[in-house]
Amino acid sequence: MPTYVKSGGTWREISSDAGSQMYVRDTTSFTNKTITNAYVKDGGSWRTVFTLFDTPASFTTAGSGTTNFTVPSNANAIHIQQAVGGGAGGVKGAEYDKAGGESAGAGGGSGAYISDKVYTVAGGELLTAVVGAAGAKSTGSAYNTTAGSGSLTSLSGASTGPIFSLGGGVGGSGTGGGVQGPLRSNNNGSGGAATLGTSLSTGTTVDGVNITTFTSGPNSTFNSGGAGVAGTNPGNCGGDNCSITGGVGGASYNGNVNGGTGGVPSSSAGGDGLQGSGAGGGGAQNQTDGGDGGAGEIKYRFLRIA
User: Fold this and answer.
1) Residues 183-197, mean pLDDT to the nearest whole number
2) Potential cystine with 270: which of 14, 26, 254, 290 (Cβ 3.0-4.6 Å)?
3) Same domain, yes or no, for 228 and 88?
4) 218, 77: one domain
């Protein structure tokens, strides 16, 4: 709620929306003390007339690639509802001419993640967000092919320094094969590594919200984060013209966002990943392509911790 004071004959708004602050003079230390909440008694009941910073109801999504934004002057923390590194692409399947088998493509790994973590930042500082791109499906010869890896998602502050870093999922490969044999070697990718930084485990905002109740992220759990996981690797089936379905992409957010489905021989390519999950690999025979990984993301809002 905005509060108004008369300054030089003009009413001036003091509110969190305006980035204003109110002070009282401490006659013991002779210093100004910042007021976080102010109340008036109205009809026998206390009513809030000023809060230093109101917790937003909605979240902001950081743009793709690298973006910069400034912490509001009255905020001192950032709530990361969800953040994840880019997911890896899926490997295409491979078919042979009387080599004694067929090859499925491995699914891509998922990116490391955060769900409902709160970090300390400084009011007015510039933050830099990097949102990781998705890894692409493998291309070229099916007998020697590697899927693209997802890229890093991170957040840092001009004065705070590095806040967190979430590695992208790593793409798998199929190598050393030939049309008449040998069957290729199918190699798993891996999940992205997490550097989660130092987050707050307890705290209450100046407008009375307990941060441990923050559970709106994909994991539905406060203060959650960790590494991504590898996609599955079905390998080779035995016998000419056998059929094998592609690998499933690694799920992101601790299994709460599924990876892409495995490609079906002669029918469908591997499914694309979502929100940092890995893509599905291609099937054989007849061979199908893998999918593309899921892009990374950061969703956030600013807070004032009391």
Assistant:
1) 96
2) 290
3) yes
4) yes
